[in-house]
Design goal:
Elements (H helix, E strand, L loop, with lengths): L11 H14 L4 E3 H14 L13 E2 L4 E2 L1 H12 L3 E3 L6 E4 L3 H8 L4 H11 L3
Antiparallel strand pairs: 1-5, 2-3, 4-5
Helix pairs in contact: 1-3, 1-4, 1-5
């Protein structure tokens, strides 16, 4: 039986922090903003054992488009704290402003299983 009021093991904000840190570890610091949500959604669909990581992230799908307000809000929060930025003029690229040491520190906050899964997800970008 699942607890309805339980706190998710990974919040949407932490999920995005871990993803950004994992992307830095893979030397991927400029990401196409439009590809982030579809990549995460596809990873979720193909990796059922890790569904606990997506408890705090809702996706809405249409015929050819996937959106997630939770991921968008996570990116906005990361931008507020200076972890990421969006390149002008059309804001189509996301730039991650973490150093290797900062990425290691962020990934050190999560379990080894979550860190391994996030590195696997980062490989899709």
């Amino acid at each position: 039986m699942e607890l309805v009021c339980a706190r998710p093991s990974v919040s949407s904000y932490d999920f995005m922090r871990y993803l950004c840190a994992s992307l830095v570890k893979q030397s991927k610091v400029i990401i196409d903003l439009d590809s982030i949500i579809p990549h995460i959604y596809k990873f979720k669909q193909n990796n059922a054992p890790f569904k606990f990581m997506f408890e705090d992230i809702e996706f809405r799908t249409s015929i050819d488009h996937v959106v997630s307000n939770d991921i968008s809000e996570g990116i906005n929060a990361l931008q507020t704290f200076g972890i990421v930025g969006k390149l002008n003029p059309k804001y189509e690229k996301l730039v991650i402003y973490l150093t290797e040491d900062e990425a290691d520190s962020i990934l050190g906050e999560c379990t080894a299983d979550i860190s391994a899964v996030m590195l696997e997800l980062a490989a899709f970008f």
